[in-house]
Specification:
Chains A, B: It comes from Solihabitans fulvus. Chains A, B: Heterotetramer of two alpha and two beta chains. Chains A, B: Keywords: Acyltransferase, Amino-acid biosynthesis, Arginine biosynthesis, Autocatalytic cleavage, Cytoplasm, Multifunctional enzyme, Transferase. The structure is a homodimer of 405-residue chains. By secondary structure, chain A is of the alpha+beta class. The first copy, chain A, has 2 domains: 251 residues, L-amino peptidase D-ALA esterase/amidase (4-Layer Sandwich); 115 residues, Roll (Ubiquitin-like (UB roll)), CATH 3.10.20. The first copy, chain A, is 30% helix and 22% strand. Chain A has a 6-stranded mixed β-sheet with strand order 13-12-11-14-10-15. Chain A has a 5-stranded mixed β-sheet with strand order 3-9-8-7-6, sandwiched between helices. A 4-stranded mixed β-sheet of chain A has the order 1-2-4-5. The longest helix of chain A is centred in the middle third of the chain and has 21 residues. The first copy, chain A, starts with 27 loop residues before the first strand and ends with a helix. Chains A and B meet through helix 2, helix 8, helix 9, strand 13 and helix 10 of A and helix 2, helix 8, helix 9, strand 13 and helix 10 of B.
Chain lengths: 405, 405
Amino acid sequence: MTAEAGSVAAGSTVAVDRERSVTAPAGFRAAGVAAGIKVSGAADLALVVNDGPRDDAAGVFTTNKVKAAPVLWSQQVIKQRRLKAVVLNSGGANACTGPEGFQDTHTTAEKVAEVLGAGAVDIAVCSTGLIGERLPMDRVLSGVDTAAAALAGGQRAGLDAATAVLTTDSRPKQAWAAHPTGWSVGGFVKGAGMLAPNLATMLCVLTTDAVIDGDQLDAALRAATTVTFDRLDVDGGTSTNDTVLVLSSGASGVTPSREEFTALLTAVSGDLVRQLQGDAEGVTKEIAITVRGAATEADAVEVGRIVAEDNLVKTALFGSDPNWGRIAMAIGRAKAKLDAELLSIQINGALLFDRGTRAQDRSAADLSGRDIDIVIDLRVGDAEATILTTDLSHAYVEENSAYSS
Amino acid sequence: MTAEAGSVAAGSTVAVDRERSVTAPAGFRAAGVAAGIKVSGAADLALVVNDGPRDDAAGVFTTNKVKAAPVLWSQQVIKQRRLKAVVLNSGGANACTGPEGFQDTHTTAEKVAEVLGAGAVDIAVCSTGLIGERLPMDRVLSGVDTAAAALAGGQRAGLDAATAVLTTDSRPKQAWAAHPTGWSVGGFVKGAGMLAPNLATMLCVLTTDAVIDGDQLDAALRAATTVTFDRLDVDGGTSTNDTVLVLSSGASGVTPSREEFTALLTAVSGDLVRQLQGDAEGVTKEIAITVRGAATEADAVEVGRIVAEDNLVKTALFGSDPNWGRIAMAIGRAKAKLDAELLSIQINGALLFDRGTRAQDRSAADLSGRDIDIVIDLRVGDAEATILTTDLSHAYVEENSAYSS
């Protein structure tokens, strides 16, 4: 369970620095510039370059069957487990754009490869923004030149890159953690699932200077995302563009054990996920749903998700109402093994429903604060999982309905 | 596909009278009274009695694993395919109330049996209201006496019963349709899935004077509900108390064919479902999602439901935004067989997304009205289904969060 250290459940046991990100590990440069893709003129193109000596890489992508062009491209190039650079743009998702959209992604990768003296297959592409619109390629390509010229190491360059990918996010989200043996993991993230309506997508770039080969990097990334990114569920959405990439330069010369590396990668990922939850659109409550006593971890996750996605639960929590009846109703919809007679529900420490019948009066649960902890005990096994979510507020409806395309 | 006549997809092809309900078919009496279960003093207890000569019956119940006491009771007694009467109360769901709650339901059935000179196993019980509270049994039992004394045939008695079961519904919902060969089907309904927050539950009582045995009645009810009640999805909720019962008196002396009976039962059920959609909490848009070209009907239903339950789609439609990108994203989350390159999306007649790429400009779709028709073509088969839903409005959030327990 080393991977659980720093999972959204445990909370990070590692000191995480939110002022640093992808350029903190040795061997990386980054840039973030305004290419004119966004009509607002805000920064909208980021570049993260791995200067080596190694170029191991891995990635995980959206499970949505409607995948954006950059996802289709990056899924192909990552198969070789090597990347020289990642180019990211906001201001357009390049999703549902057909063969022309895929060609735009390919052209972007070729341009980055050209300026970096690499091959197009060494370049991953990420896009976020409106679905169904072609990108203004002239601006994307000139933006790549501008970004290449601005490439630098250090804290500022990392922050520029983390800022250029933002859409409806209210702030950049960075995290970095170092291992006592002399290597570190850093990264930035934007969005949160389909939290940001048309401006879809969760994009995350992680870097490390540890010496680790691509297959181990891939295994560590899957272990880390399973207990972090996969445990945040704001509105059940999984976008057409969701991407998490990790690049390793090996510049520290240190080879950590698989457990050490997975633990630190998980700690950094878990911190980034908590930042996504805290910056969710319209969020007024940060909710952690822990499901205990499940027959399997998959059952625990399913029950946590069905509660996290239930609009009646989410609206009740927005109203600070410890409405355990709605939680029991939502749990009952799960396919997971459960028995209503064994079920218990605790909210912020108050046991309101115990083994199929009411326990303490709901007034015992104080939901006036921003943080809400729900603990569900199924009592049919010993598997456990925690899902993070947010409430369903007027602001959520406003931000997602007032948006005009 | 006779059963499709009058399904939510086709719309009723039969003349339906919304002024009549359970007492319109011969052989039935009903009553609705104020028993004092609701603190408001509004009507809260209804009785529907079958005077025969026959007493065939069938029922379908919530699939939720957390079932209210009256559901557990009624599921048992319906196994004999015979019912003398149904007693329904609003003002309390009697769900999550443990063994004591089940005893309360049993006691209620025994009381009704006593006043009607029947056995407790001939009495179905339905409850709706707050989850987790015991019922005030003294008031329930005295209410049964009051209701029994008020039992009558005719339009007024049916309306009284249809009114006594209401919770957050804004109006009673009745439907009746006659067959030219001299028999009819009538019914009333309240709620809509988990539409009514704590005041959970969809309850429906249908009656007929056709001559039809319990097994055929059961088959017809399952065929009818599959294409009507099962095709309304407002917020994905299925309550702890959902119940649909059908009682047959055989008083017309007419034995319809299975097809004739299923068609008329489906027409009446479909009309009641459209009334549920129109009275949904916070509804500002009545949305029909038709999925065509699916590999199987189950796939069509899954895709329709995943779109109907997507908060980003529901908030966009509240904002009258023909946001096909969110619909494509939602479809992509389905397990159903589909290919993004074949997918098309039409909204109110405008083809906005065709075979994987954008078609007409979204401005071609006018969503200013209350009715929105979404047609999704998967082009992987020839199965089809229509799901009815509503939008996610500020009023929905308000009604579901401001509610104070």
